């Protein structure tokens, strides 16, 4: 409500009163909770999944500011500005931050965190968040809390340990709480009609001591694995890359699903490493997870057991996956999956 | 090119194949009588360090590979394993049985150790499979103000102390380059760790293992996070099996998944 009033005021051009209000909120902020949600951009486009940090920030209560840095962040910032519940978007326009190199991005965040007097800093538990946030935490002398799945209050957080075989509730005593959050536990905030003000942050201008050389991203027309509503995942039972592609891809297309894989399938070269689901790969929680030729090792279950419905097709009736699957079919996947694909297509 | 002085931090954790059980008091998981081994990602760090030497990957050569662990007395076993794989020596910072250090404390400890050992490359696992925090390497790089490359699947050395690292990222790989000194964390695809052979295990017993304490480094086990409780995750109940593909489709429709 406060920021709405302020927007109206600044629109009317009532600068004096506007400033007084800003100061009042600044004062209260120095004591009270406020959150910086780190947003990600890629080639100037907002990474929608990073809006999970906003969802988590709103859950904490208190004002939430979004943060974006890169050479052309205005489009991404405007997209983020549409999200309800964000007080402002802070941007730093500088190509030095395009690739999110931790050596200069971490000091950049530290400067902006100190300037804004934030009590909470949140980023997604993504490749970017995992690389940059611990560095930020160390520079702030704060013990980061990784892969948070629930926020109980401003200092109490829940996170899985031991590949999700235990759930720890921890209380942070740090002045600045630095968190990475599990995207599947905090659905990304959806841009709506808000028009949050966009402000420039401080550019720390520290030098990047590493240099970005190149990237090679797996291209696919299928939905993104981490956010897909349906995932079909193949394991060692697929026997070869050719069979994996021949059996799994048509099923994925029939369902409109993303493709995942077990570590065994990735290690054997049946599927790209970026498709790995599990403790050391991606964590997914789709509406439907269909495990094909996957036994269900602890490390795989860590990445998918929060799925709404789990289906399994495996020829071994004793495979551990059947203990957690909502529906299981014992049979040869090379027969059952093509049959399933046909029947889904024709229905 | 500087000769490499590699520091390899390793952690003793519950073996990856063991299903951990939460203790009755809900303060942690049962560790007594449970098989422990080296954190799998640290296995990769040791292997990579030894390969850099054996395959002469670094133009300046490898002067020293020092394995480092902060843990209970039994952590010495995994330091011996690291030495049997090819590390030259070990440093053990003894922590009381049952005590744990938080990643920030480990990073501070490693910073002091790096300075003491004059290390110019630290290779750590990307995460330990017990706490799953995935923070120590990045925190250490931040404290040292060194460049970092996380989740490495390939490490290459060039002239003028340049190190090129291919990293696993969401959706593919990314390659970055930096100069020594630096911090690298390992991903599973980096290599396949060797098994220590019996002769090497015997030889490792003669290698130097320094024993230290946190106090030697001017540190205490300061906890920033208070563990309020540790619980079992909600158990999923299997929903049983169906006879055929039609049964599968029927059940999925019933569950609203199709």
From TrEMBL, chain A:
| Cofactors required | FAD
The record lists FAD as bound by 236, 262-263, 276-280, 293-300, 314
**What InterPro entries does UniProt report for this protein, alphabetically?**
DHS-like_NAD/FAD-binding_dom, ETF_a/b_N, ETF_a/FixB, ETF_alpha_N, ETF_asu_C, ETF_asu_C_CS, Rossmann-like_a/b/a_fold
Q: Which domain of life is it from?
A: Eukaryota
Flavoprotein is among the record's keywords: yes
* Gene Ontology molecular function terms on file: electron transfer activity; flavin adenine dinucleotide binding
Domain Electron transfer flavoprotein alpha/beta-subunit N-terminal residue range list: 35-216
Subcellular location(s) of the protein? Mitochondrion matrix
**Co-factor note (free text):** Binds 1 FAD per dimer.
Protein keywords = Electron transport, FAD, Flavoprotein, Mitochondrion, Transport
**A Gene Ontology BP annotation from the UniProt entry:** fatty acid beta-oxidation using acyl-CoA dehydrogenase
Show the SUPFAM superfamilies listed in the entry: Adenine nucleotide alpha hydrolases-like (SSF52402), DHS-like NAD/FAD-binding domain (SSF52467)
Where is it chiefly localized? mitochondrion
Answer yes or no on keyword Transport.
yes
Output the Gene Ontology cellular-component terms: mitochondrial matrix
| Family classification | Belongs to the ETF alpha-subunit/FixB family.
| Known partners and oligomeric status | Heterodimer of an alpha and a beta subunit.
Write out the function statement from the record.
The electron transfer flavoprotein serves as a specific electron acceptor for several dehydrogenases, including five acyl-CoA dehydrogenases, glutaryl-CoA and sarcosine dehydrogenase. It transfers the electrons to the main mitochondrial respiratory chain via ETF-ubiquinone oxidoreductase (ETF dehydrogenase).
Tell me what this protein is called. Probable electron transfer flavoprotein subunit alpha
Record organism:
Hypocrea virens (strain Gv29-8 / FGSC 10586)
Automatic annotation (TrEMBL), chain B:
Provide the protein's localization.
Mitochondrion matrix
Domain of life of the source: Eukaryota
A Gene Ontology biological process annotation? amino acid catabolic process
State how the cofactor is bound. Answer: Binds 1 AMP per subunit. Binds 1 FAD per dimer.
* Xref: PROSITE patterns: ETF_BETA
Question: Known PANTHER family for this protein?
Answer: ELECTRON TRANSFER FLAVOPROTEIN BETA-SUBUNIT, ELECTRON TRANSFER FLAVOPROTEIN SUBUNIT BETA
Note the subunit structure.
Answer: Heterodimer of an alpha and a beta subunit.
The entry assigns this protein to a family as follows: Belongs to the ETF beta-subunit/FixA family.
Q: What does this protein do?
A: The electron transfer flavoprotein serves as a specific electron acceptor for several dehydrogenases, including five acyl-CoA dehydrogenases, glutaryl-CoA and sarcosine dehydrogenase. It transfers the electrons to the main mitochondrial respiratory chain via ETF-ubiquinone oxidoreductase (ETF dehydrogenase).
What is this protein's name? Probable electron transfer flavoprotein subunit beta
